[in-house]
């Protein structure tokens, strides 16, 4: 008498098992459809966060470099400025702009042959620092950063500037195809003391 009841119970549960399997299959299909969109949104958010962090770090490095350039101890040398920019810009490879030598032009109003680098000249994931007015006598500026002549600061304006440009490369290949040349650029101008 017990056996027929068991068969009856198993027979009654069989349609429920098919229903549960179809529900799992439906959830798997829904996940397969939604997960690419979710991952796209997630990685885009990560790239935007990286871009904001890059801007903050590059701005801070330019500000500290300009502040160092405005001090009396940096009249005959760019060495302290270069060290400060590299120290504050940790995590980002900061190189000196090849045009950051004596006779260069103001980054806010570039003119002449010695201007800040263009976007095409900056390698991916590298920052170029440009000091104006520079004291370095030849490129590379970090090897020739001292001079016997003082910084050519205009007596009427008394400004020094540090510009940093960083060639940002997104992690997401889809974003890289549409926005491959993202340049994070900041210029900090400080009055000399």
Brief synopsis:
With 193 residues, the chain is α+β, with helices and mostly antiparallel strands.
Task: Spell out the key features of this protein.
four-stranded mixed β-sheet; 193 residues; 15% strand; alpha+beta; 3 helices
SS class: alpha+beta
Radius of gyration: 30 Å
Oligomer: single chain
Secondary-structure element order, N to C: HHEEEHE
On the 0-100 scale, what is the average pLDDT? 81
Strand content: 15-25%
Sheet with the most strands, sense and barrel status: 4 strands, mixed
**Main sheet strand line-up:** 1-2-3-4
Tally of extended strands? 4
Low-confidence stretches: none
Structure, explained:
The protein is built from three helices and four strands. It has one domain (34-191). It is elongated, with a radius of gyration of 30 Å. The protein has helices at 2-70, 79-88, 173-178; strands spanning 94-96, 127-132, 159-168, 182-191. The chain is of the alpha+beta class and 193 residues long. The chain is 44% helix and 15% strand. Strands 1-2-3-4 form a four-stranded mixed β-sheet, with helices on one face.
């Amino acid at each position: 008498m017990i056996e027929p009841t068991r068969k009856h119970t198993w027979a009654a549960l069989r349609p429920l098992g098919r229903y549960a399997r179809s529900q799992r299959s439906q959830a798997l299909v829904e996940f397969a459809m939604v997960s690419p969109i979710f991952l796209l949104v997630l990685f885009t958010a990560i790239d935007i966060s990286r871009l904001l962090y890059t801007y903050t770090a590059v701005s801070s490095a330019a500000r500290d470099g300009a502040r160092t350039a405005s001090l009396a101890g940096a009249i005959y040398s760019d060495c302290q400025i270069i060290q400060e920019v590299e120290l504050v810009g940790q995590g980002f490879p900061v190189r000196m702009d090849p045009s950051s030598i004596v006779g260069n032009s103001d980054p806010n109003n570039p003119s002449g042959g010695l201007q800040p680098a263009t976007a095409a000249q900056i390698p991916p994931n590298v920052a170029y620092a440009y000091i104006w007015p520079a004291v370095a006598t030849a490129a590379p500026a970090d090897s020739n950063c001292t001079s016997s002549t003082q910084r050519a600061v205009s007596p009427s304006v008394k400004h020094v500037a540090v510009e940093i440009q960083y060639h940002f490369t997104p992690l997401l290949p889809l974003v890289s195809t549409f926005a491959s040349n993202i340049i994070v650029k900041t210029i900090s101008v400080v009055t000399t003391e």
